[in-house]
Amino acid sequence: MDHFFLVGSDLPAVPAGFVYGVWLSDESGVDAVYAGSFLPVSGMTVVRVPFDRFRFDRVLITLEGEGTVPDEPGDVVWEEAAVA
Predict the structure, then answer these.
(1) Residue 66 and residue 39 in contact, taking contact as beta carbons nearer than 8 Å
(2) Which of 3, 22, 56, 74 has the fewest other C-beta atoms within 10 Å?
(3) This prediction's pTM
């Protein structure tokens, strides 16, 4: 399995009790897999994400409850095509 890096600068803070969740999905949105979570840091945030480019082609960033392992994506705050 390959991986990629999400890189952002000066990301907005998440509300208390939440983290940003990373989801990988196919184009239809039916096959969505939780890939982990992160909290933004001051300046530049870099997150390493495992990625199967033959299975997934979308990346979603969501708001998830801190300390949870969600079954489905929470509120989507960013979504983009994953281009190999």
Answers:
(1) no
(2) 3
(3) 0.88
Has domain 2-81 been given CATH number 1.10.8? no
The domain segmentation of the chain, as residue ranges, is: 2-81
Q: Which residues pair with 18 in a beta bridge?
A: 65
pLDDT band with cut points at 50, 70 and 90 for residue 31: confident
The Cα–Cα gap between 70 and 53 comes to 22
Whether the per-residue pLDDT at 54 is higher than 70: the answer is: yes
C-alpha–C-alpha distance, residues 34 and 16, integer Å: 21
Q: How many CB atoms lie within 10 A of CB 39?
A: 13
d(CA 59, CA 11) in angstroms, rounded, equals 17
